[in-house]
Amino acid sequence: MNRTSYKSMQRKPSSPKLSKGTPDFQLLVLTLLLVGFGVVMVFSASSNTAAVSKDFNFDAFYFVKRQLMWAVLGFIAMLIAMNIPYQFYKKWFLPLFIVTAVLLLLVPYFGVSINGARSWFRLGKISLQPTEIAKIAIVLYLSALITKKGEKFREFKRGLFPVMIIVGFVIGLIMLQPDFGSAFILAITAGIIVIAGGANLKHIFNCALVGLLGVITVLGINMLIPSSGTDGGYRMGRIQSWLDPFHDAQNASYNLLQSLKAIAHGGWTGAGFGQSIQKLLYLPYPYNDFIFAVIAEELGFIGTTIFLCFYAYFIFRGLLIALRCPDIFGTLVGVGIIGNIAIQAFINIGGVTRTIPITGVTLPFISSGGTSLFITMASVGILLSISREWNRVSQEKTTRKTTVEHRKDYRPIRPV
């Protein structure tokens, strides 16, 4: 038998071609379930208000149609982000950050004022909120910068201090609108990323102490001179209503009291879907800031607990994906994204239930909102991109292990 025939008779193990990793199926399904549930609850919470208001064209489906539109756009953005390798954002975070900073600088002068905050640009019938873009821009900025600095990030002058200056600048622009709820969320999110990035805990503590003293100073000035700020008295009223909901039941405490009444009316099993009483022009913005109160009233303690379990598992799954990522940039981005969603959800639900003072932030995935829903779903797309990398690495390890086992079992055919 010639050499060619001998080689052709050898059975060599073949290495299957590796494809892109698959996105995390559980996170994808949980996201779609939360968004779908949000659309349903927006309809339930808004239909009565919209049907009797000229501002909404007497259209009971006014809010749900907008929510569906943004959900579809957000789904498309999520699919696009999911198919872009997350390392791409490490190179292009700076243009996004610069655009966001410019928008934040312009919105106090050219934006429209809603509920005392000049936080939106009006583009026809579409409203754009730069603060929502800033949340993901800060996450990408911090993650890329910390990754680039490496061990230098543990140094205060060359590491943490320059980062805090930039973050403080962005937070300051948001407070000028004024939007203290979003500024607080952004500050906590930045703190989580900084801690996860390995900053010196002593430096973090000192920065947190300075920030706390600043907040106490601002609150003290507002308490002594309520007219010193555009809405200082309003913010202090929220704190007072949190401490004593009955001290000004028709003004400062009205929103919180109506929210607590809705939760109490829900009881264990709820009044039933669409049967909320408080949403009938009693509870302000039942489709937005106070949508959780409507959920509690219509679904009761049992239904609300199930909803919160789904939400908690979504956060757990997102955190697991972030921690599994094979590189520090992906881990920091994932922790920042899921941390931002978790903090905002806690602040919204905490305010509605009187766990903390009301801040006026929305409930991610659930509340009616355009920019917020779109950016949140796009952020989940980045998380799914991170999960694809983990699955790809896992698949590669499995393939290598299989190849080694095939080679161990390989036995050449002896020539006759």
From TrEMBL:
<dbReference type="GO" id="GO:0051301">
    <property type="term" value="P:cell division"/>
</dbReference>
<comment type="similarity">
    <text>Belongs to the SEDS family. FtsW subfamily.</text>
</comment>
<feature type="transmembrane region" description="Helical">
    <location>
        <begin position="290"/>
        <end position="316"/>
    </location>
</feature>
<dbReference type="GO" id="GO:0008955">
    <property type="term" value="F:peptidoglycan glycosyltransferase activity"/>
</dbReference>
<feature type="transmembrane region" description="Helical">
    <location>
        <begin position="328"/>
        <end position="349"/>
    </location>
</feature>
<comment type="pathway">
    <text>Cell wall biogenesis; peptidoglycan biosynthesis.</text>
</comment>
<keyword id="KW-0132">Cell division</keyword>
<keyword id="KW-0133">Cell shape</keyword>
<keyword id="KW-0573">Peptidoglycan synthesis</keyword>
<dbReference type="GO" id="GO:0015648">
    <property type="term" value="F:lipid-linked peptidoglycan transporter activity"/>
</dbReference>
<feature type="transmembrane region" description="Helical">
    <location>
        <begin position="208"/>
        <end position="225"/>
    </location>
</feature>
<feature type="transmembrane region" description="Helical">
    <location>
        <begin position="93"/>
        <end position="114"/>
    </location>
</feature>
<dbReference type="GO" id="GO:0009252">
    <property type="term" value="P:peptidoglycan biosynthetic process"/>
</dbReference>
<dbReference type="GO" id="GO:0071555">
    <property type="term" value="P:cell wall organization"/>
</dbReference>
<dbReference type="GO" id="GO:0032153">
    <property type="term" value="C:cell division site"/>
</dbReference>
<feature type="transmembrane region" description="Helical">
    <location>
        <begin position="126"/>
        <end position="147"/>
    </location>
</feature>
<feature type="transmembrane region" description="Helical">
    <location>
        <begin position="361"/>
        <end position="386"/>
    </location>
</feature>
<dbReference type="InterPro" id="IPR013437">
    <property type="entry name" value="FtsW"/>
</dbReference>
<dbReference type="GO" id="GO:0008360">
    <property type="term" value="P:regulation of cell shape"/>
</dbReference>
<protein>
    <recommendedName>
        <fullName>Probable peptidoglycan glycosyltransferase FtsW</fullName>
        <ecNumber>2.4.99.28</ecNumber>
    </recommendedName>
</protein>
<comment type="function">
    <text>Peptidoglycan polymerase that is essential for cell division.</text>
</comment>
<feature type="transmembrane region" description="Helical">
    <location>
        <begin position="159"/>
        <end position="176"/>
    </location>
</feature>
<dbReference type="Pfam" id="PF01098">
    <property type="entry name" value="FTSW_RODA_SPOVE"/>
</dbReference>
<keyword id="KW-0808">Transferase</keyword>
<keyword id="KW-1133">Transmembrane helix</keyword>
<keyword id="KW-0472">Membrane</keyword>
<keyword id="KW-1003">Cell membrane</keyword>
<dbReference type="GO" id="GO:0005886">
    <property type="term" value="C:plasma membrane"/>
</dbReference>
<keyword id="KW-0131">Cell cycle</keyword>
<keyword id="KW-0961">Cell wall biogenesis/degradation</keyword>
<keyword id="KW-0812">Transmembrane</keyword>
<dbReference type="InterPro" id="IPR001182">
    <property type="entry name" value="FtsW/RodA"/>
</dbReference>
<keyword id="KW-0328">Glycosyltransferase</keyword>
<feature type="transmembrane region" description="Helical">
    <location>
        <begin position="182"/>
        <end position="201"/>
    </location>
</feature>
<feature type="transmembrane region" description="Helical">
    <location>
        <begin position="68"/>
        <end position="86"/>
    </location>
</feature>
